[in-house]
Amino acid sequence: MGKVFLVGDGPGDPKLLTIKGLKAIKEADVILYDRLVNKDILSCASTSTKFFYCGKDPNSHSLPQEATNKMMVTLARKGHTVTRLKGGDPFVFGRGGEEAEVLASNKIPFEIVPGITSGIAAPAYAGIPVTYRDYSSSVAFVTAVNKPGMDKDRYWEHLANGPETLCVYMGVKPLPEICELLMHHGRSEVIPVALVHMGTSQQQITVVGTLNSILDKKHHIKNPAMIVIGEVVKLRENINWFTEQTIESEVTLTQITST
Prior knowledge:
There is one protein chain. The protein is an alpha/beta fold. About 30% of the residues lie in helices and about 20% in strands. It contains 10 helices and 12 strands. The chain has helices at about 20-25, 40, 65-75, 95-105, 120-125, 150-160, 175-185, 215, 235-240, 250-255, and strands at about 5-10, 30-35, 50-55, 55, 60, 80-85, 110-115, 140-145, 165-170, 190-195, 205-210, 225-230. The strands form 3 sheets. Strands 3-2-6-1-7 form a 5-stranded parallel beta sheet, with helices on both faces. A 5-stranded mixed beta sheet has the order 8-9-12-10-11. A two-stranded antiparallel ribbon has the order 4-5. Strand 4 and strand 5 (about 60) form a beta hairpin.
């Protein structure tokens, strides 16, 4: 019997990969990797390692989740050491919990190797702490992709009146609806909002506005991008430390986001 490691590779900067995650990559017989995994990290694997792409983009899935689950189980039963490599953290909107359940139910030995999630790292590289004594003692990691049949109005009503900081994953496309629902349910229209595209990478771009103005400022920013909503966004003005891409024109920005 082999073993499966569910590994988070972090938010984009390969230097943010953990030591334990690097060890799991180097020792893997097989690596199953996702779309947002930094390809530089894959070069750390052994030359004999086999790779399988299991990524999912917003418009299509290269491999159904059930097929990925079956592959992990089959490979482990054949005695292979399998590293299931995911962007960010496997347990933060990465389906790591689902995959761990499958491995457990099939009695496959496994380990979870946490990674730095973009909900923390992207704001940090944009000079935005997700908590700060004067502004925020609570933060929520939120997905903008809702389950079928879910009451979106109730979902965003709860968040509008809940945590002081919201870190929204996969929210660029539905951003107009998110802003509308939050304001409708009582969130101030002038609450600061930041969009951090390709956080922690050399392609990082950040735009800042408010709930009622961010749509005019987001330009051509596309996923992957982290949306941060809360007073903590104000701190970027003083503690922004990371050198980002400069938006000189919409043409330049389009070129950056399409690569």
